[in-house]
Fold this sequence. Notes:
By secondary structure, the protein is α/β, with parallel strands linked by helices. The chain has helices spanning 49-61, 74-82, 134-148, 170-173, 193-203, 217-240, 253-260, 287-299, 317-329, 346-355; strands at residues 38-41, 66-69, 86-92, 155-159, 244-249, 271-274, 306-310, 334-338.
Amino acid sequence: MNKRDFLKASLVAGLATQIPVNSSAAPYQPKKKKIKNWVWTNPNQKDTDDELKTRYASFKASGITGIFFEADSERHFRAAKAQGLETHRWIWTFNRAELLSTHPEWYSKNRKGESCADHPPYVTYYRWLCPSRPEVQQYLEQQVTDILNKDYVDGIHLDYVRYCDVVLPVNLWSKYNIEQTKELPEYDFCYCEVCQAKFKNDYGIELSSIQYPEASLSWRLFRYHNITRVVNSLSDIAKNHKKAITAAVFPTPEVARRNVRQDWTNWRLDGVCPMIYHGFYKEKVSWVGNAVEEGVHFLAGKFPLYAGLYLSDFNSDDEIRQGIQFAFKNGAAGISLFGDVSKGNVLNILREEIGNVKV
């Protein structure tokens, strides 16, 4: 199963803070947006050098400025750089299975006490590391350091940088024979002993004393901060390497906090790519604009937002065009595309719409 064919969804969280206005201050002048557009892809080792040159030249000519590569391939990275494209390594962050045999204790436990090391939720590849464990953070820091030490890598792109989906998009409920009108214990992570001890240390509360932990605001905030702490640590590593760090995140701050305990508006990044896959949420194309507007509002200029569009969700070229237009109209600094951009008129549409953007 393609990782992007299994996604996430739903509601709640996040309140705007009211900030008093200093009437004597100069009016806010928004910075000029520098448009950047991205493609998520997995390098195919069967591609010839001529094919890579042609492909990446066409990307550049169509307004693509960078590529998120899901695997390491020096040949692909250098071929893209030769055409003037940024090359970022796209990694799975907390959803990693390579430590199952050596460190099964590092994996998250759900509210029933089951570890995803031997009880993966939803699908077999869902193996989530616990962000409370210092050794997990150290492992991820080393992974990012090793990647950014390579001269052909321009940046790091974080994916699965969250907890497991406690709620799936309603579009997937029938697929998995689940009705998630409430948070079910088998999908609610992480309740391991390390998390519980750290929560007590931070908040002075025994988690076991809370009758409804799924409704505890302190417990929810603890998990937001857990992910944020690790992300900001990885951001420091990127900054030390003088390289960029971005992340693929859930479509809006509200959905991200509610469904996967992901508080991405408080991360230290160079850009964020919300996966605004409207089809998974049974929304119309216009929802792309709504999601972008919400994200831009809560980011308040901290870093740019690049609207992630899932090409399979669009039924026509006209819908693709509309999606791009809704994104730019509502403040996106660019587009991130997932799917085969070489098919149809995707690149031509992107190039045309970039030409219509007022910056």
